[in-house]
Specification:
TIM Barrel, 8 strands, 16% strand, single chain, 250 residues, 11 helices, eight-stranded parallel beta barrel, alpha/beta
């Protein structure tokens, strides 16, 4: 089964927020992405609302419910009380928990599962009680013991942090070394029944190699690279290009 594509709309929202104007439309480009066959939409509402705004969440929820009921809404973020309340209101099919400090420009590491097991167990339980699938951001370092702790929190999936792999765009040998760590983490998760997602700095160019080594990745969440492609090819064609990179016949 091909890996599913979720389109992260944060970069679109960040461009919109450069002006006090409603364009580019986050809802409109989300619609185009779903019309082109994306499996879902991802957003990361940070406390300062520097890209996705809290007011975008009900709009995107309604877009999916009214026009694309078979696809999924994925909300990612650090689980503050405010974030959890946003998720409870928006009822996403999936919540991806990341260990970001609010001041970070972007996610850049996975959870320390040993240190945060109790905290994550409480949060995961609360979100699952509302019917959300929960995925936890994880480093691709091959640490099978850490993955086992992630499973003990009650999470359904991990999301492999692929930033270091994405940074190897000009170093094929290092890219293969990064894949080995990602593969070790993924296989440890797969062996104990955790689903595996992936995200961060994935591109049309580097996705196929990753998926050849880890073919059971269920979903990739892609924003920056897909938005860059959309500037060149348009959103619909960018989605189709990424779907082909995920193994779909488009």
């Amino acid at each position: 089964m091909p890996t599913k594509l979720s389109v992260n709309l944060n970069a679109i929202a960040m461009l919109r927020n450069r002006r006090d104007l409603p364009w580019p439309s986050v809802e409109g480009l989300g619609r185009i992405a779903l019309q082109a066959g994306a499996y879902g939409l991802t957003v990361h509402p940070r406390p300062d609302q520097r890209h996705i705004r809290f007011s975008d969440l009900p709009v995107l929820r309604a877009l999916i419910d009214d026009e694309f009921p078979a696809v999924e809404f994925n909300i990612e973020g650090y689980p503050t009380g405010e974030f959890i309340a946003l998720c409870e209101a928006a009822a996403p099919e999936q919540v991806t928990l990341v260990p970001d400090d609010p001041s970070q420009a972007t996610s850049d590491h996975g959870w320390d599962f040993r240190r945060h097991q109790s905290f994550l167990t409480d949060v995961v339980g609360r979100l699952k009680a509302r019917g959300c699938r929960v995925s936890l951001f994880a480093d691709g370092d091959g640490d099978g013991e850490a993955v086992a702790i992630a499973r003990e929190t009650g999470a359904d999936r991990i999301e492999l942090y692929t930033g270091p792999y994405g940074g190897c765009y000009d170093d094929p040998a290092r890219a293969l070394r990064e894949i080995e760590g990602l593969k070790g983490t993924a296989e440890a998760a797969h062996a104990i029944g955790l689903g595996v997602n992936a995200g961060h700095d994935l591109t049309v160019g580097n996705l196929p190699l990753l998926l050849r080594h880890i073919p059971f990745i269920a979903e990739v969440s892609i924003g920056h690279g897909l938005t860059a492609e959309a500037l060149e090819f348009g959103m619909a064609e960018a989605v189709r290009r990424f779907r082909r990179a995920c193994g779909e016949a488009v």
